[in-house]
Amino acid sequence: MNFDDLLKKRRSVRHYLRTPVPRNLVEDLILAASLSPVSCNLQLTKYVVIDDINILNKLSKVSYKFKYSPCCIIVLHDSRFSIERSSGIMTAGMAVENLLLKAEEIGLGACAMAGFGGDESIKNILGIPNYMDILLAISIGYPDRTFVPNIIPKISTKERYSFND
Predict the structure, then answer these.
(1) Closest Cα to residue 114, out of 98, 138, 130, 97?
(2) CA pair distance 98, 92, nearest whole angstrom
(3) pLDDT above 70 covers what percent of the chain?
(4) pLDDT at 82 over 80
(5) What is the distance between the alpha carbons of residues 162 and 165, in angstroms, rounded to a whole number?
(6) Which side of the chain, N or C, has fewer Cβ within a 10 Å radius?
(7) How far apart are alpha carbons 57 and 43 in whole angstroms?
(8) Residue 127 DSSP symbol
(9) Is 120 helix (H, G, I), strand (E, B) or coil?
(10) DSSP per-residue string spanning 43-99
(11) What is the largest CA-CA distance in the chain?
(12) Residue 116's pLDDT band (boundaries 50, 70, 90)?
């Protein structure tokens, strides 16, 4: 599949089969993320992969979004470093986009989710240090193809940019 087709095909998936995701595929996703641009080469983005159903069940008491899939990746940012223009967070965003595109390429579904609370509870369950900020959770799994998602219309490309004004 060429790159343009990959971009057009990728969608946020919220309905998954209960089939476990092999760890080598998850490692491929993390590798894709690590190939993204990194501000000042600080490499402040870290990942916690949760594929243990018992831990996912504990996390689902914090947010129902941890029930979506058989695997979840928590994206962390080391907050001990102050970086202008939120470049550390931008770096994480670029890494996540690589990960999402790789998931699509290898037949996995994924959904990057920022809309959940309970960061302190999540940190306690996973043993995440206080200096690490939770940026996102990404659900990962094999898409349930029996569920037909709504196609969300996007504004036209011409409405998104201008030249020199």
Answers:
(1) 138
(2) 10
(3) 99
(4) no
(5) 6
(6) C
(7) 30
(8) T
(9) helix
(10) --EEEEEE--HHHHHHHHTT-GGGGS-SEEEEEEEETTS--GGGHHHHHHHHHHHHH
(11) 54
(12) confident
